[in-house]
Amino acid sequence: MRANLPDKALFVGRRIPSRPNLEITQYIQSGNDAHVFIGRDHELTLDFACKIIPRLNLVGAQDGKDTWRAEIEKANRLRNPAVVHFSDKLEWKDEANGIDCIVLVADFIKGLNLRDFIEKNKREITMPFIVEFLATMFDFFNEMQEAGLNHGDLHAGNILVEDRSNSLRGEKFAFRVTDFGVSAATSHETAFTDDYLQLASILRQLLEVYDYQAAEPKDQFIFNKLNTDFLTRHLVERDQTMDVTARRPDRLYRRLLELDDEYEKFAVEPDTKLFSPFDFLSCEQIGDVPSILKALYSDLFLGLDVIEGRNNVIVTGPRGCGKSTVFRNLSIRQRIRINEASPEQIKYIGVYYFCNDLYFTFPRYELPGQQVAWDIPIHFLTATLIYELLEDVGRWAEIHFPDEFKRVQQRAVRKILDVLEIDAPKEPGGQTFKALEAELQKHRRRAIFFQRNAHKTNYDFGCLWGADKLIKSCQILHETFTFLANRPIYFFIDDYSSPKIKKALQENLNRVLLQRSSCCFFKLATESPVSFSSRDVDQKEYVENREYALLNLGLVFLRDDTGRKLSFIEDVFKRRLEAATTFPVKELGELIGDNQNQNFNADAVEIRSGKRFAHWSKQTLSNICSGDIHYVINLVQVMVTSAGGAEQIGKNTTVPRISAAIQDKCIRVEAGNFLKNLRGSCEHGAKLVEIVTAFGKVAYSYLKYRNAKNQTGNPPWQASRIEPYEPLDLTPEAQLLYNELLRYSVFITDSRGKSRRGKVVDRLFLRRFLIPFFNLTFNTRDPISLEPGEIQLMLDDPAKFESTKLIRSPEAIRPDELELGWSNKED
Questions:
Q1: Confidence band, pLDDT 50/70/90 cuts, at residue 824
Q2: What is the CA radius of gyration of the chain?
Q3: Domain for residue 253, yes or no?
Q4: Are residues 360 and 343 in the same domain?
């Protein structure tokens, strides 16, 4: 709490000098910048909420500026009934008592703030309560968005639960948002918190105290949807190319209202049947339905052999490429639930962990100044992963090795307790997996509490676990149980991506997750190579192919010339089409056609001639895929809708059921929608679109006017990749844009490229999804070779880059752009 807050006793029982009829009657609470009281207006006989803020805590006040006033007045620009408006701004000066404050007067809301309400009224946290809360917030967010405002300090303490128990109409409770603009007026920090992420944190608090086991099936269904769709995706997602509902309050509101109808459909046929082959576009949407997860999983997934190998693996790839689906299906928990966990079928013990848990525990993480607090995240993650491991191993052992498990369990627990330096419970039955799991949950909560105090000097954190505890615990299980001796433990850590999991947090946890061991291995899924830090807080650099293997799924899919990618895509659709029992087509080839005679050189000639070249067939669908199977499924859904839906497709007996013209239009339109959504996905989205558009136009001009002279028949130059002549040395601003292009998979990087000058460089492949949009072909033979300065120019000034590099006629090709006489085929 700030030192310049006056003693709260100075105010109670006194009248505000500038409004004598308003008496401070009761203290409520204090924050970092202010005290909150109840004030009684004796003339109006009304109670008001009075927030008393020392002038020194107001932004601009010390400089004689009224910056703070504009921020506070934002609240009154909104007419939403959820907003608690300020009715007055008063001054309170009393030199004798050292008071120089501003008093903000607002309506007094009868009830508790949501944080206290959750603590004192857990039984009132019903599913209608949570749904009504979200509906109120989405309506509030929608008006804020239209006004171009944000709250900036949204948390459970700033949301009031109004008691309406005496009302004969409506809900028992209503929700009111307070302190709108106060954070900006009193904080000297320039960065505000993100309202959507803060709302996700509040939703998590509500779901954590909800009594799921006692709930009705419908409420359990809605709980799962809120937990998977809203908490895991819609509220935390920034990338609107992945989720068109994210950060769009009107769509969030409609999605919330649709949950009742979704349950009615689910209740009719909840097993492995789909109402549409395009249901569950992401793994998170499947939720807790193992049969559907199994039905939609293809073991033809490219890169599966690397993931299942006995190495630490960093798995990167475009969002929606199936990393989560693979990780969840390889976990022993999923294998048990689908009856595929016999000892003969289990070669390793897979433990799945989703990093949303880390994000909500350590948001905006910064390494504490005092080294003693560095191990708090290690302590939390160690407790979490050992808990999950014991839960899964215990469940599997009770089914298949009950005698040995019963005989050896206590010995294993005693050894783990010794390693973790935890006193063994004295009561009977205290040395079991279940008892140890309960103890580990206490340590998780302990770490969360410690993190709130991580930056306090001289704080006693007690004994925090170091980076060695997890592997030592795994070794104990291996040495104690014979059924684990030859089965390594795989920890599948999903969505280990910055900026969600901050680089500082990654570098702290890498001390555990990039350790090498013979008994356990870590598989980390991250959305791109730039969203993962390969070092730790001790400045140790972890080296690819020594501490870990890198599996870039975008590159694996892009480079495949064996037909495995097409087989995988066909299998994915076969599973979906068969699971949707009412859909009239069961094979992808029948739906969109088979075109085995594709010829990229012929396609390029047709594009050059100015004809409208049509993209269609399952081969084109395979060519479009950069590993982003999510987009491919969504694209076919758009095609089906454009062709009149399932009913019309059932009436059409022509193969393909969807015409080439419709397929081509949908492919181009959806690529355009990707760029449109990219524009709003991040701060630099518009610049990213300008950059890739400039490259696309330049690449098209190469196809239009330049020939590959060392190829038989001199076909058009078909470039969809950038090949630097030299390694890049970008300015910080350009490097940020470069990283964003990779993060959103606008380009897919190949770090094993070799330039025409023999230098090791990062090649950049245009995302396959965008190739038809720019009238290019899927040929990967030809590059656009650029000097580092030209790439810098492309990032800094895309329009100037386009003007400089665009070829406008065959005569416009410069001598230095002519083919040098050797093959451009990739190394």
A1: very low
A2: 30
A3: no
A4: yes
- Identify the helix (H) or strand (E) that includes residue 173: strand 173-177
Q: Do 704 and 667 have their domain in common?
A: no
Measure the CA dihedral 321/324/327/328, to 10°: -140
Phi then psi for residue 425, to 5 deg, are -60, 145
The total number of structural domains that make up the chain? 5
Shared-domain flag, residues 31 and 69 = yes
Question: Is 496 found in the same domain as 432?
Answer: yes
For the question of whether the overall pTM of this predicted structure is more than 0.90, the answer is no
Q: How far apart are CA 803 and CA 698, in angstroms?
A: 9
Domain CATH code at residue 57: 3.30.200.20
**Do 573 and 637 contact (CB within 8 A), yes or no?**
no
pLDDT at 241: 77
89, burial (CB in 10 Å: exposed 0-12, middle 13-18, buried 19+): middle
What are the Cα distances from residue 693, in Å, to 152, 322, 607, 620, 772? 34, 27, 18, 22, 13
Query: How confident is residue 439, by pLDDT bands cut at 50, 70 and 90?
Result: very high
The reply to whether 123 and 65 lie within a common domain is no
- Cα gap 741→753, rounded to integer Å: 18
Give DSSP secondary structure letters for 684-707. THHHHHHHHHHHHHHHHHHHHH-B
Cα 603 to chain centroid, rounded: 38
As a residue count, the chain comes to 827
Within 13 A of 148's CA, how many CA atoms are on the CB side? 0
Q: Is residue 378 part of a domain?
A: yes
pLDDT digits (tens, 9 = 90+) for 316-351: 998 888 899 999 999 999 999 999 999 999 999 999
pLDDT, tens only, 568-612:
999 999 999 998 989 999 999 999 999 998 899 999 999 999 887
Residue 286 lies in a domain: no
Distances 465 to 139, 436, 709 between C-alpha atoms, Å = 44, 16, 64
Query: Residue 134, SS3?
Result: helix
Rounded Cα distance, 806 and 797, in Å? 14
Contact 82, 140 (CB under 8 A): yes
Q: Are residues 171 and 216 in the same domain?
A: yes
Residues 592 and 523 in one domain: no
Helix residue ranges, H only, 288-401:
290-295, 304-307, 323-330, 332-337, 356-361, 376-400
Find out whether 16 and 93 touch, Cβ atoms under 8 Å: no
Q: Mark whether 697 and 666 lie in a shared domain.
A: no
Does residue 502 lie within any of the structural domains? yes
Q: Which domain holds residue 153?
A: 112-177+194-236
